[in-house]
Amino acid sequence: MSFFSYDNIALYLAIVLSVINGILMCFASYKFFQMIQLSNYKIRGYFKWIKDTKGNYVIRMIVLSLLSLFCVLVTNALFDVYHSEELYSYLGLIFYFYFTIVFITNLYHAPQKTPLKYTKRMTRLNIAMFVFVTAFSFVAIAFSTEYINFLKFGTLCLVPLFIPLFVPLVHLILIPLESLIMATHLHNAKKKLSKMPNLIKIGITGSFAKTSTKYILNTILSVKYKVCMSPHSFNTLPGISKVVNNYLNLDDQILICEMGARHKGDIKKLCDLIKPKYAVITGVGTQHLETFKTYDNILDTKFELVQSLPTDGKTFFNGFDDGAKTLFDRCKFAKQITSGVDDVKDYDKSGTTFDLTIGDKTYKDIKTLLIGEHNVQNIMLCVLVAKELGLTDKEIINGIKLLKPIPHRLEVIDTGKNLILDDAYNASTNGTREALKVLSKMPGKKIVVTPGLVELGEEMEKSNIEFGRRIAKVADIVVIVNKLNFASIKKGLSEAKFNEDNIYQAESLNSAKILLKDFLQEGDSVLFENDLPDNYT
User: Fold this and answer.
1) Is the pLDDT assigned to residue 535 strictly greater than 60?
2) Would 207 disulfide with which of 51, 94, 139, 285, CB 3.0-4.6 Å?
3) DSSP class of 86
C-alpha cells in the first residue's frame, strides 16, 4: 500500500507527528530566535554569535539529535521493526520527545539579560518556522518510510540538526514581507507626525548615558509640558516608529527619542523619520567599535543627528566628554555646552548634593537621589535644554527633586546588610570609570562583579586590561564572570599588584551570586558592573 493512500493510517500519524515536531522545534529554537532578534535581524550578527560562542548551542542541537537517533535505532533493532508491526517503529520516538522536552525546559530556565520578546515580527517568524519544520518533518518521514524503512519515523530525530540553519533561512524568506510591513509603519508614523506641526522633537544620542539623560530630561520637562519619551531602550528605527504609532498622543507637546546606532547611517534614518529640532550629545566613546570599525566612524555617526537639524535647531553637548567636545568644535549651528561639575559637594548611598548655576544665579545644596558626578553632568545637560524650552529656574529645580534612580544604571539597593550598586546595563569604558568612583565612596569591603567590556573589537583586550588596573585601585575582591575577558582583566589586576587570592571566576552571574555568599559580610558594598549580552553567553 502506498504511503500516500487515503486509507493508510501511517499517513495520518505522520501528519500528527510532524505537527507536534513543528511545535516542539519552535520552542527548541528559542536561543536562535533570541540571537537573531538581538542582532537586529542581521544575519551577520547571528552567525557571529555562533562563531563567538564556538557553536555551543549548535553542538547542543547535534547532541539532542544524535542521542535521540541512537535510542530510536536501538529500539528499532530490539523490536526488529523492519519485520514487525508498524506500531513498534513509534516507540523510539518516546525518547526523542522526552529529550526534546528536557532540552526546552533547560533552555527556558537559563538566566538571560534580555529575554526573547514575542513582538509581532517574532510571532510571524515563529509561525513561518512552524510551517517550515512541519513540512520538512513530513517529507522526511515520507522519504524514510519509502526508502529507509528500517528507520521509518526515526528521521524526526534528524530535524534538530537543521534548526540553526532553518532560523536564518526562514528569516530571509520573510524579509520582503517584513520590509513591506516596516514601510507601512514608517508611513503611518510620518503621517501622524505631520498632524502635529507644533510638536517639539528632541533626539538624544551618544556612546553612553543616553537612557539616563532621556529619563532625567523627561522628568524635568514634565513639570511644564506633556511629554512622550521613547520607553525602555527603544532606540532603533522599528522601535521609534512603534513609539510614534503606539505611545505618542496627539495632545503631547514634546517627543524625546533615544537614538542608538551600530553602523554609519543608523541615526540619519531615525532623523529622517522624527526630524528633531533639538539634539543632545551625551558623549562619544569606543562602544560598538566592533561594528563601527573606527572611532571616526562613531564620531561621524553621532554627528548625523546634528546635521539633520533644521536651520533654527540647536545642539547641546556634554562638555565634560572629549568626544562630545570634538563634535562641539565641528558643529557650525546653534549650540551650547555644559560646565560647572566642580560644584558637586558630596555623594553617598542616599544621593548627591551639588550647587546648580543657571545663568547668573547659583542655587546651593541641590539634592538628587541619583548618585555620582556623571549623573550631575547629565542633569546639567538637561538643565540647558529645559532652559531653552522656557522652564523657570524653580520648575527646573522641582524637576530635579523628582528624579528617581534608573533601574540597572548605578542603582543603589540597600539590603539592610549590604549596599548593592546595580550597574548591569552599563557597558562603556566611561561608565565603568564613574561606577568605580562611586564604589570608592561606599562603606565596608568593596567587591566588584563583572564580565568586563564587550563590543570593542580590536580594543577589547586593551580596554579590559585597563579596566582591571582601575578595579585594583578600588576593590578588595573581584569576581570575573565568564571566560571571555578573564585573562585580560586578571592581567590588569596583576599589573596593579592586586592580591591574586582575591580574584575569583564564575561561569555565570548566578554562579557569581552564589560565590558571593562565601565571603560577603555585613557592611560590604558590591558593584555589579555590566552583564554580558546574551549573544556572548
Assistant:
1) no
2) 285
3) G
Q: Report yes or no: 457 and 393 within 8 Å, Cβ to Cβ.
A: no
**Per-residue pLDDT tens digits for 109-154:** 887 777 888 989 999 999 999 999 999 999 998 888 777 766 677 8
Burial of 519 (0-12, 13-18, 19+ CB in 10 A): middle
Task: Write down the residue that cell numbers 575582591 correspond to.
Answer: 477
Instruction: Give the chain's count of helices (H) and strands (E).
Output: 19, 15
Residue 484 within a domain: yes
The verdict on 117 and 153 lying in the same domain is: yes
Query: Are residues 206 and 354 both part of a single domain?
Result: yes
Contacts of 427 (CB under 8 A, 6+ apart): 287, 453, 454, 455, 530, 533
Length of the chain equals 537
One domain, residues 234 and 346:
yes
Parent domain of 79: 9-178
37-48, pLDDT tens digit by residue? 988 898 988 998
The tens digit of pLDDT for each residue in 462-494 reads: 989 999 999 999 999 999 998 888 999 999 999
**Among all chains, which residue has been given the C-alpha cell 546653534?**
334
Q: 119: which residues sit within 8 A by CB, 6+ positions away?
A: 37
Task: Return d(Cα 333, Cα 328) in angstroms, integer.
Answer: 10
Question: What mean pLDDT do residues 511-524 have?
Answer: 88
Beta bridge partners of 279: 203, 315
Closest CA to 192 of 140, 239, 155, 247: 247
Which pLDDT score is estimated for 483? 85
Whole-structure pTM value = 0.85
Strand pairing class (525-529; 419-423): parallel
322 close to 329: Cβ distance less than 8 angstroms? no
Q: What angle is formed at CA 246 by the lines to CA 245 and CA 252, rounded to 5 degrees?
A: 85
What is the C-alpha separation between 314 and 16, in angstroms, rounded?
Answer: 63
List strands edge to edge, sheet with 419-423: 411-414, 419-423, 525-529, 446-450, 477-481, 503-506
**Amino acid (1-letter code) at residue 68:** S
